[in-house]
Specification:
The chain has 423 residues and is an alpha/beta fold. It contains 14 helices and 14 strands. It folds into three domains: 74 residues, Pdz3 Domain (Roll), CATH 2.30.42.10; 199 residues, pyruvate-formate lyase- activating enzyme (Alpha-Beta Horseshoe); 120 residues, no CATH class. It is 31% helix and 17% strand.
Length: 423
């Protein structure tokens, strides 16, 4: 069942005086398991809602509505479906003590895949779960394939059900669903010939497989070489060539790239980033595919729009991966703003120096490398380093950070020039 968290003002639920905390048990006789069910079942124009009030009273509401009338029930968040795997590269194993609480959750929930684009493995779904996906047209889904060879995938995920992936994908496609897929590339586990096989198998499933992202395994000092090691430059370069081969075929046969190597793959291989056209519509930015290119292009396009900050010191906080891109543009930013621009490359002590992306910088590490703030300083934080609750990855609140940098103005933003344009 689903608990009502909010009632939209002026909606049908508001007119019926439904209470927050009421549980919706069934709609038109169908059991309501979660928020997806609620949305799906509320699409009918004639509704019978079986509910239980906060006081425990069972109440049935009969509703007839026009197609545009809003029922107005906002459900409480669903309990997260957790992962059934023990992946050899699991990010949980790389967490230090003190990391944000949400980083301990082993989520593998198709609902998050559908609503937020999170990648799932499908190993915790049996035939009934897959049938539900098809019946409710929960599509597109984002699937972590990693390898299509059953034994290779079982070895990576440490789960006997992992070997069913091709059967599951075929069933979902036959049911009319579309899917985005990814491979987390682990050297000597699913690279080389295994990656070629995965590319071929996914391509052969047809256009219902809308994309394939190949991203390098990310390891911290807590799970380095236990048992997976990081990619070496030559291995990353080879993987890029394999992806490029798939892209040439896709461009010729389907008119778009289809296969993409993540930005970090190019950085590891010590290669320049592809042009913006490589990323087609940019739908995979959240998976690390094209995010750096977008940042660079937006910076270059907007740098002349920043506010004048004559004589002030602007300190751009970043990590090792992005530092060269910011240093290459610091001069243009200084010229446009009149400020003294300093790129502060922060060493990641919290996870270890193998972690080089700005979104995983701990607040305490940033403070340590910033040092004391000067009067009138502007500190620009990477937006990804903070969550919606304004906590850094090490659970340090932004308010604490601002207190420690009290002499400075602290701003945050994915796009540096956009952040500075508001000052």
């Amino acid at each position: 069942m689903v608990r009502i968290a909010e009632i939209e003002a002026g909606s049908i639920a508001d007119e019926l005086s439904l209470e927050i905390g009421t549980r919706v048990v069934r709609i038109n006789g169908e059991r309501v398991r979660d928020g997806i069910d609620l949305t799906f079942l509320l699409s009918d124009t004639e509704l019978e809602l079986e509910t239980v009030s906060p006081s425990g009273e069972a109440v049935i509401y009969e509703i007839e509505r026009e197609p545009g009338d809003v029922v107005g029930i906002v459900p409480a968040p669903d309990a997260i479906r957790e992962c059934a795997n023990k992946c050899v590269f699991c990010f949980i194993d790389g967490n230090p003590q003190g990391v944000r609480d949400t980083l301990w959750l082993r989520d593998d929930d198709f609902r998050l895949s559908f609503t937020y684009g999170s990648y799932v493995t499908l190993t915790n779904l049996g035939p009934k779960g897959l049938k539900r996906l098809i019946d409710q047209r929960i599509s597109p889904l984002y699937v972590s394939v990693h390898a299509t060879e059953p034994e290779v995938r079982r070895r990576l995920l440490v789960n006997d059900r992992a070997g069913l992936i091709m059967e599951q994908l075929r069933d979902l496609i036959a049911g009319g669903l579309t899917l985005h897929t990814q491979v987390v590339l682990c050297p000597e586990w699913n690279d080389g010939d295994h990656l070629d096989r995965t590319i071929e198998d996914l391509w052969d499933l047809g256009p219902a497989i809308e994309s394939l992202s190949v991203v390098p395994v990310g390891l911290t000092r807590y799970n380095m070489n236990r048992p997976v090691r990081p990619l070496e430059p030559g291995e990353a370069a080879l993987a890029i060539e394999q992806v490029d081969g798939a892209r040439r075929r896709a461009l010729a046969g389907r008119g778009f790239g289809w296969a993409y190597a993540a930005d970090e793959m190019y950085l590891i291989a010590e290669r320049g980033l592809p042009a913006a056209a490589y990323y087609d519509d940019g739908a995979l930015y959240e998976n690390g595919v094209g995010a750096v290119r977008r940042f660079v292009d937006q910076f270059d396009a907007r740098v002349d729009q920043v506010a004048r900050l004559d004589g002030r010191r602007v300190r751009l906080v970043t990590a090792r991966s992005m530092a060269p891109f910011l240093r290459a543009r610091a001069g243009r930013l200084a010229e446009a703003s009149g400020a003294h621009v300093e790129v502060v490359e922060v060493t990641n002590r919290f996870f270890g120096e193998s972690v080089s992306i700005a979104g995983l910088l701990a607040g305490r590490d940033i403070l340590a490398d910033l040092g004391p703030a000067g009067p009138g300083d502007i500190v620009v934080l990477p937006a990804e380093a903070l969550n919606a609750d304004e906590l850094f990855i090490d659970s340090l609140p932004l308010a604490h950070f601002e207190g420690a940098q009290a002499a400075a103005s602290v701003v945050r933003g994915y796009e540096v020039t956009e952040a500075l344009a508001t000052l």
